[in-house]
Design a protein that fits this description.
Number of helices: 16
Structural class: alpha/beta
Radius of gyration: 25 Å
CATH topology of the largest domain: Aspartate Aminotransferase, domain 2
Number of domains: 2
Distance between the termini: 46 Å
């Protein structure tokens, strides 16, 4: 017999599987060692120093400021990590409900998923949510699958998806994966989607309009309700890219301004790890007209707080991920929302917007801001003034590394030449922002007096300035000792 679930307060316990169900593997003789492995004898002290020194070469939110625009690289509170490390959750195997009809054994986990869904519907103004998508771009693809299913059921002949050039780059990529042709709308002189161009290109064959709101210029479009109404007039659905949702959290619900589909990056708005810091999560919310198409299984609550998984939805697009999403990431989000509560979530957007505008107002004397107005969670400046002295945005980014700051996003959005996109997030202090701003001012001054100092950076890293064009054109992936 084999035990697959073992811990309890009283010691070791388990649910037994017959030995016949356990694959029996035997290593072939030719793969077995004939002599002991030759392993180096290294003291614990040397090992600790080696890995500690390696870790010091890393940038992380725990050690450095990450003003990375449109990626919301904010601090992840450690209490959420503790919640996700609870044995009652980490010991669960995701196959429990299917193999053992064991829903009664995982009621706590199911309740976490269910209640997180309900919280997100309230926060966004949607009617239903699925927690399955494993990243923001995966959420986009799932949302577009739902939109496609909606139009197929109505036998609508739709072939286009409209995407402003101020949206995230994954928007057109996700739509293209489903075979849609992309209509790109340019940015007007105010930093918003050009309304006249939008009206001219909107037609009965448009399946969806994908909007990042606020957009990647950090601006909230004041005509957003007019845009969603126009889209609905041709039976196009409106997709909300929630990557910048922390800017309006608790202030505005996408459902109230006409959006039909929402994806949320839990690592951006709700402080779960981002990128290399851990798995992502991009849950998708929809209005009632799209709920029949949501992925299965779906969670339902029966009487007496009993939760069950339901699969019998004939119009569902099917599962889009294994199991029920990145459960421990969802758990972190649930704990984060419970801790902050309504007023705390509103503070998130207040501070995010305040910090971005503080940076913008302090730096506007030294850098060009093509859209000089109050922004939302991030601000976009241009290094065109510095380019006149030979210093480009990439040089500024490299110099910031020497001064202990992760570079902001550069050369995006593409509508701004030599763009530098700064997102300070709501978790950074004024003291940290002041240090960053002072270095940015220092760069602006050095660009005038000693531009060569900026262009030589970085000088403090193990690998110095690379020829990035050569590296891109002449890939060398061979490992050499």
């Amino acid at each position: 017999m084999q035990l697959i679930f073992e811990k309890s307060e009283k010691g070791r316990r388990g649910i037994k599987m017959p030995d016949s169900d356990v694959p029996q593997q035997k290593i072939e003789e030719k793969y077995l060692r004939t002599e002991k492995a030759s392993l180096p004898e290294v003291s614990e002290l040397d090992v600790v120093r080696h890995f500690t020194n390696l870790s010091r070469l890393n940038f992380s939110v725990d050690t450095h400021f990450y003003p990375l625009g449109s990626c919301t690289m904010k601090y992840n509170p450690k209490f959420t990590e503790e919640a996700a490390a609870m044995e009652g959750f980490t010991d669960l195997h995701p196959l429990f409900p299917q193999i053992y009809s064991g829903e009664k054994l995982v009621q706590g986990a199911l309740e976490v998923i269910y209640r997180t869904e309900r919280l997100l519907t309230e926060i966004t103004g949607m009617d239903e949510f699925t927690m399955q998508p494993l990243a923001g771009a995966h959420g986009e693809f799932t949302g577009l699958l739902l939109i496609d299913a909606y139009h197929r059921k109505k036998e609508n002949k739709k072939k286009y998806v409209i995407v402003p050039d101020s949206s995230h780059g994954t928007n057109p990529a996700s739509a293209g994966l489903l075979g849609y042709e992309i209509i790109v709308i340019s940015t007007d002189s105010q930093g918003y989607m050009d309304m006249e161009e939008f009206k001219n290109k909107l037609n009965l064959e448009v399946a969806a309009v994908m909007l990042t709101c606020p957009n990647t210029l950090g601006l909230f479009n004041p005509r957003i309700k007019e845009i969603t109404d126009l889209a609905h007039s041709v039976d196009a659905l409106v997709y909300y890219d929630g990557a910048n949702f922390n800017a309006i959290l608790g202030k505005c619900k996408p459902g109230d301004i006409g959006f039909d589909v929402v994806h949320l990056n839990l690592h951006k708005t709700f402080a779960t790890p981002h990128g290399g810091g851990g798995p992502g999560s991009g849950p998708v919310g929809v209005t009632k007209k799209l709920s029949p198409f949501l992925p299965v299984p779906r969670l339902a609550k029966k009487a007496k707080e009993i939760f069950e998984l339901k699969y019998n939805y004939k119009e569902s697009i099917g599962a889009v991920a294994p199991f029920y999403g990145n459960f421990l990431v969802i758990l972190k989000t649930y704990a984060y929302i419970l801790l902050l509560g309504k007023s705390g979530l509103m503070d998130v957007s207040d501070i995010a917007v305040l910090n971005a505008n503080y940076c913008r107002s302090r730096l506007k004397k030294y850098y060009d801001f093509p859209y000089s107005k109050i922004c939302m969670h991030e601000c976009v400046c241009s290094a065109l003034r510095q380019v006149k002295k030979g210093v480009r945005a990439v040089d500024i980014a490299k110099y910031l590394i020497d001064r202990g700051f992760h570079p902001p996003t550069i050369y995006f959005p593409i509508s701004v030449k030599e763009s530098i996109m700064i997102e300070p997030t709501e978790t950074e202090s004024k003291q940290t922002l002041d240090k960053f701003i002072q270095v940015m001012i220092e760069i602006a001054r050095l660009s005038k007096s000693h531009p060569e100092k900026i262009k030589k950076a970085p000088l403090s890293t193990p690998v110095l300035r690379l020829d990035e064009t050569k590296a891109a054109r002449e890939l060398n992936l061979k490992w050499e000792e």
